[in-house]
Amino acid sequence: MADDTAGPPPSMPYWHVYTDADGVSRQERFTLTRFELKGIDPQTAPQWNDRQAPSRASVTFTVLPVGWVGQWHENPRPQWIAILTGRWFVETMDGHRVEMGPGELMFGEDQNTKARDGREGHLSGTLGTEPCTMMVTGLEVEPTVNQPGRFR
């Protein structure tokens, strides 16, 4: 369905925390680009949607207190994390540290890492003087290995 008033398809940036072929966690910024203009049902006006593959999921609203640090750990399952308020950081085993704030999106998929130098998965924590609130959508899917940016 085309709609000239909607303009070109949008894109949406996200950070992908993933495990490479050597078992090292890494993170890179990618962009969701598979948007289609259509209503979510016949009665809804067209909107831009980038539909993901269907899967069972659980949603958790999380509040990380000021000063919170999650020592080295893997994401418990592949999960989308949307930052609502506050700021946090994620450092991967390759030494790359990313700071994120409200409106930013991350896909955590660092399962199956191999411990090195006391590091496994990622290190994360809050930044600043306010808690970091987020919406976490955990997917019941098999994690991939060495597929950075698999949603673009």
UniProtKB/TrEMBL annotation:
This is Cupin domain-containing protein. The lineage of its organism: Bacteria, Pseudomonadati, Pseudomonadota, Alphaproteobacteria, Hyphomicrobiales. Residues 111-122 have a biased composition (Basic and acidic residues). InterPro entries: RmlC-like_jellyroll (IPR014710), RmlC_Cupin_sf (IPR011051). It comes from Methylobacterium planeticum. Coiled coil: none annotated. Residues 101-127 are annotated as: Disordered. Signal peptide: none annotated. It comes from the Bacteria.
